[in-house]
Amino acid sequence: MLLIFLVGVVSGLRALTAPAVVAWAAHLNWLNLHDSRLAFMGSTAAVVVFTLLALGELVADKLPSTPKRTQPPGLIGRISLGALSGAVVAVSASQSVALGAVVGAAGGIAGAFAGYQARTRLVRALKVPDPVIACVEDAVAIGAGLLLVSRF
User: pTM of this prediction?
Assistant: First the structure.
C-alpha cells in the first residue's frame, strides 16, 4: 500500500505523470493488468494519450497563468488521477481496486499540498525563479514515478 500511496503522491506533484508512468509500466509488462478492467492502461493509445498530456502539463505548469494545484480544478484532477493510478498499481499487485483508488487519491492530496509547500518555500529560500524549482519538481515526479512502477 505504501507504493500505491507514493504513486498517488507523484500525481499530486504532476497530475498526469502518474498515469503516464503507470501506462508505460503496463505497456512494458512491468505491471500485470491482463484480464482486468484496467487492462486498457497498457494499450498503445493510453500510453500515447497520457504521455502527450503529461508533456503538455510539464509546459503548462511553468506558465504564470496556471492556477495553484491546491485550487479545486487542479486538486480534483490530482485526486482523480491519483485514484486511477493507485487502482492500476493495486490490480497489478492483486490488491483491492477500491482500496488502491482510495490510497492513490489520498496520495494525490498529500502530494498536491506537500509539493506546493515545498516548491514555494524553496523558491523563497533559494531566491531562484519558480520555473527552476518547477523543473526540479518535474524530474522528481518522473524519476519517482518510474522508480515506483519498476518495483512491481
Answer: 0.93
